[in-house]
Amino acid sequence: MTLKNQIKTTILLGLLTAILLWAGNQIGGTKGLTIGFILAITMNIGTYWFSDKIILKLYKAKPAKKTEHPELHKIIENLAKEAHIPKPKIYIIPTQTPNAFATGRNPKHAAIAVTQGLLTTLNKQELKGVLGHETAHITNRDTLITTIATTIAAIISYTALIARYALLFGGRDNEKTGNILSLLALAIITPIIATILQLALSRSREYLADEKGAKLSKQPLALANALQKLEQATKTTKGNTATSSMFIINPFSAKGLANLFSTHPPTTERIKKLQKMKI
Description:
Helix content: 55-70%
Radius of gyration: 21 Å
Shape: elongated
Strand content: 5-15%
């Protein structure tokens, strides 16, 4: 399953890149495209570099003292050794909604944050499974991959904006802007497709983190049980949808076609895959 999901990640990034190249070709040599490219790169590098500080501050996370949370520290320390990475910094989020996320630009500058509710909702083995999942996100360098995908999607959105301006202010068939149908596709359809691909990539990385996390913790069934508990507990959650992709469980449920725009795969599918795993 790991190879399958890695191939899927490569294909999705390739498709995003192909859309970007096509969009750039439709716009032509527009100086605004270059400016948008530079702005998108700068914005996302900044987000990548400072993401840990931003997200931890947003959720009012506080460092977890080893004297107050010895078991939490011990589990993460053992998982880090198993994964051959430095021990991530550990934070507690002051909320009773059970959830967790990993952040940081690389394994040397990583952090794992858990909510107070997670510590009281899960037993030791389930907690180990969840923390294994988050450790896997760090070793898989998902922050970097997500940043690359977000950068490409942001540039595509910018070119779509240029196309909309071209349509509004009299864009017609010519060498620079292409034909009117291409502009319509670029302005309306392309950014939607790019978003769908970006989110599909996010879902693929979740499957990878589940698998690798289960292997690190040696607790696939415990992780499956934890996901089930977290799914139930977060059904009534309200909060910041912009950061929902960070968490092990999306705090905001999606059904039907809305799944195309979900940052996470269906929990039932994740559970089925974990239950079939043999460690």
